[in-house]
Amino acid sequence: MSRAYAEALNRLRPAVVPANGEAGRQLIDRAAALLAGRARCRVAEAHRHLLRMAADRRREVLEVAHGVIRLLDVSEAPAANEPVLTVTQLVDAALAAPATVPDPDIGPWIATVQRILDVTPGMCGFLTAERDESGRLTDLVWQAASPDARTSDGRRGTQLIGERASRQSPDGEVSGRWAIYQDVLDTGCPAAIGPFRHGDGMYRVRAHRLGQGLLVQWARHDNAGRESERVAGTERLGNLGWGEWDLVTGDIYWSNQLYRIYERDPRLGPLSREESEALNLPDDEPLRQAALAAFENAERIDVTTRVRIGGRIKHLRTVADAVRDAAGLPLRLYGIVQDVTERENGARRLAEVERRLADEHELAASLQRIILPIPEGPLELPGLKVALRYLPAGQENLVGGDWYQASQLRDGSVLLAVGDVAGHGIPAATTMAQLRHALRALSVTTGDPGALLAHLNRLTCDLERDSPELAATAVVARFDPARQEIVWAQAGHPPPLLSRSGRTEPLTCPSGPMLGVVEDATYPTARIGFHAGDVLLLYTDGLVEHRRRGPDDGLAQVIRAVDDAVRVSPEQPLAQLLARLRQTNPDDDTCILAARPVTGETRDLRRYLTANAN
């Protein structure tokens, strides 16, 4: 079907195609399609009428096609109540229509184009056409321009608006470029021109039809042009602009980016001294005076001050120097101004965050010291000697929720516990305090480790309603000195280690979910004998988990440390053990509780712990 349609169109085209060649064919096809759409007829019929009427009126086919496109190629569809014209009426209207169709709403539309060009890099402009009665392009008028746009007469950016292109490019018509511009306007087909010489440079131009006008982008392609583009690109990347001030003539020059930084229209020229001083903040006057004193001593200026522009505060870094005569008097001042507002605001926000973190860390550390005091020496409990160590995380801001409990119960037994609240900072420290004190209070009513963990679990579930995703682990043990026996239970916690007869192994854990996960969870208990020569180690996961090793490797390393401590000092191993477990985890804090049964011959280990703490 498409092939037959193409052959039919070829038969309808005139035998002699105008000099425009394929572009002319495309323009005629476009005009025919527009006619067919507006007259609601077939394309082939519109094409046939177009050719016949051009012959009847003794007009060139391309001239008729240009008129049709100018009249009908608009963005808005005809109104529903608009009468449907015949092809003949449409062609007559196209030939009678003025060369340029004015648009009463073009002002706001051009303002939108200008806002877009304001943030467009490179040299770009939007121009509207002026035509004679025959529809031939006679001139182009600047309606909008990018800040980097500049012409050979020295005009830049918005200085070009309202100017005629023939003033900057009088050779455009002779060189054939304007004929290409007219073709772009009439056909809508973009075009690339160049490189061609204009003034003292070589240029390339790309032109696109945009609405009823021409969007033009051009670039200089000789060494001077590339250097200028590199400088402009560097200014944009660094958000900086440069300027010069000839102190002899009084002439001042600003780069385009400097106008952007000060949000100033280039048509107004650089700021006067009075205008510049009006932007300064009074609080920065000492900085400006110090910079002026340095300049007077022939030193380079490098100062960051604040200015108020458009109701906002900007931080501007100025680096400036001068060309001086033999006597040291400045002749020309040159330098750069860089907008460092984002950097300064970011540094201020970072400092505020660091201050808050420091305050939070100090508060959490103080809270932790109050609710989790670590005794300087071992604890003497019925039938037990207990040594404790708390290893804070390697990072100062990681105050955690690790805790311990070691106390005598009313029946003469001993309660031992270690727990870990997920997270760091004040929330973790606060939850840790609640769990530790709750365990101590609950131990007045029961000494059963499973029952105590069930109570702590219900408390954690209640706390979790106010602090979502709260989770904690714990291990609780009760030592009966009369039976030389330990009953223990755990809630998602690493298994205790038991050293016996020179060999250390983790205990087999009874089941038990983490605290705060299953509201009605139960915690079975296990029993082990605990006799003279045994060592029990309760700990939190920071002891065995490390970013540089897996938990199995960490556990193996701790087991070796326990074995070595018992081998070196079998009678008093706790001091040796804690000395070997001093290394902190950079990612997590660690709580260690080591216990061993004692007899009346056991010596006080205080001096060993003190020696290892120094």
Automatic annotation (TrEMBL):
Please list the residue ranges annotated as the ANTAR domain. Answer: 8-69
Which terms are listed as keywords in the entry? Hydrolase
**What sequence ranges are listed for the domain PPM-type phosphatase?**
385-596
Which is one Pfam family of this protein?
Answer: ANTAR
Highest taxon of the lineage = Bacteria
> Which InterPro entries does this one have?
ANTAR, Bact_Sigma-Reg, PAS-assoc_C, PAS-like_dom_sf, PPM-type-like_dom_sf, PPM-type_phosphatase-like_dom, WH-like_DNA-bd_sf
Q: Which GO terms describe its molecular function?
A: phosphatase activity; RNA binding
Which part of the chain is the PAC domain? 299-352
Q: Where is this region: Disordered?
A: 148-172
Q: Where is the signal peptide?
A: none
SUPFAM superfamilies, A to Z: PP2C-like, PYP-like sensor domain (PAS domain)
| Classification via PANTHER family | STAGE II SPORULATION PROTEIN E, STAGE II SPORULATION PROTEIN E-RELATED
Protein's recorded name: Magnesium/manganese-dependent protein phosphatase
Q: Which organism is it from?
A: Paractinoplanes rishiriensis
